[in-house]
Amino acid sequence: MEMLAKEKRVCYTKSVMKRTDKISALAELEKLYYGAKPALKFSSPYELLVAVILSAQCTDERVNKVTEVLFQKHNTPQTMLLLSQAELEKYIFSCGFYRMKGEHILSASKDIIEKFGGEVPNTVEKLMSLAGVGKKTANVVYSVAFGGDAIAVDTHVFRVSNRLGLAKGATPLEVEAGLNKAIPKEKWSKAHHWLIYHGRQVCHSQRPNCENCTLKDFCDYAKSGKNPKKK
What we know:
Layout lengths: L4 H4 L10 H14 L12 H11 L4 H11 L6 H4 L4 H8 L5 H19 L7 H5 L6 H12 L8 H10 L7 H11 L5 H14 L18 H5 L7
């Protein structure tokens, strides 16, 4: 289950961003966040998969603290399944939604062993065949662990894409489809990180910093005047 509940409540209109503005916005994002990397710490595709599952509605900083302890003894599907649901929940409690996340981690681990010989599959389709793994998680693992071209739509990507007008939609899948059209395929994975960093540093969920945003001349939201100025 992918969690974007807060963002999905917002009603977005069709994009009015011109193609030239999309090109300019992407160029600015690349300049601002060139070389941006995932903040999650991992040393294998399996560790990344677990970390991404834990990161839903949780900060990467918190996930890294949890996995630092968890992965000392349980960093493969085989060793993860040595834990009961209750034992795993004790490790991941502070990440929130710990029961559901625990179920997903254990069920995905079982599928990796039974369906893929203990190796994390390397395509989006096969990753999504794992119990508890949705499109966002599959896209992250495919792009980051295996170097594939994919855009994972988390809360930051969803919000920034809609506000800019780069890709608008009421669901993550709609936004992903729009981004795939707006962004050259070879930059999908990189743009995923640009949008995340912009959401964290500038385009906050509450009170985005439009006044100091270098994308404001291209941005639907900034030009709409909906954002109240800071006092």
